[in-house]
Structure formats: C-alpha cells, structure tokens
Amino acid sequence: MNWVDMIARAVSWRSLDLEVSWREIEWQLGVQLPSDYKLFCECFGAGQFSGYLEVYSSSGGTDCKILQKLRRFHNLIEQHPVTRKVFEPHGLFTPDIGGLIPWGMSVTATEYYWLARPDAGSQGWPLLIREESGDWQRSEIPMTEFIFRMLTDESFADFGIADLVAEPFYESAT
Question: What pTM does this model have?
C-alpha cells in the first residue's frame, strides 16, 4: 500500500481516478513532478483536508494549481521586486536553477513547498515548510507521507493536526 492509498483509507475516500495531462503540465513547468504528487492528484483532485490543508492539486486535464501559483508568484515578483525576499534564501522555481515549488497551504497560512533542483530527480526533493512567522523548516519525507502523518500521527507535533481532528476527512472541490 502506498501513501496515497493510506491517506485515502484514513479519510474514507474512494479514488476519483482522474485523467491528468502530466506531459503538458510538466512541459509548462519545465520539470517532472514527484510521482506521489501525481498519484495524489489522480486520486483526490482539488479539495481540502479536515478544513485545514489545501494541496495545490489538479481537477484533471491540463489543470494544475501549482502552475497557477507559480505564475502568480512570478508575476508578483516582476511587478514588485522587493517580494523576491519572501522566497529567500531558496528562490522561486525556474527550470534552469530550481527553487521553491509550492504544493499546499494551511488555513493558518503555513506554506508547503518542494525545494526542486534540476540536477536531482523529483523523488528526492526535500519539503520546505514556512509558517506565518517566516521561519523555514525542512523535511526529508515524501509529500504524501507528510500529509498522512499530519492527519493521523499525534507525535508529528510540529506539523500535525491529529490531536485536533479526531477523524480526518477530505472535502472535494472537484
């Protein structure tokens, strides 16, 4: 059983089996996304976990909220160069140098990113988490394991909500 299946079981979810145009999405992004993220999108589509975490997912086809968020962030930096500091010291992702790729946000304004490097396969990208205070924390586990632990593991104290939500759930926006 993979992490996506474990998340689905934890929130009593049946896969949507969405068709997503990964080739087109990854071409636009300029890098391949982690395989667990792709499985996640195909299973869950767009939505939110336990009223807390939104993963920048896909509703199928060429839709991908990661692309939308990156474009918005790049436009913001272009219009207001001082906002570049928000993404320091890592920088916002570009295909030639890598950088931060956003994959989610919590209702408490905690932001979740991959630190993508063009010279490393996407399966090994570390997660970077930034709370509203602006401090960065790093995690070396896959995104889907992180979500599973966030929802179910009370010992995942820095990031978890298991002690706040007795039975995790998923609300689809798809």
Answer: 0.94
